[in-house]
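I am still getting used to backbone structure tokens and would like to learn alongside you. Would you supply a protein for us yourself, any chain you care to pick? Start from the sequence, derive the backbone structure tokens from it, and show both lines together. Go ahead whenever you are ready, and we will take it from there.
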Amino acid sequence: MTVTDEIRTALQSAFDPHELEVVDDSESHRGHAGFQEGGESHFNVRIRAAAFEGQSRVARHRAVHKALVDIVPRIHALALDIGV
């Protein structure tokens, strides 16, 4: 399973989102810190789920990081766009 698939599976399981997009953006970081050949080092995630209703931006980010606790240490960058 790719890291992209792992992220998607973990977030789907944790939040049952009505919108989820996980993009491996590693290639656009070629030559920058953390880039690794073959990708899977830099990710952009857009997630929308009712589970985030009433939570602050910080609480939403903490919840996503908690859901990805086993994955985040293996990647270099994670950009999050989180909403209801």
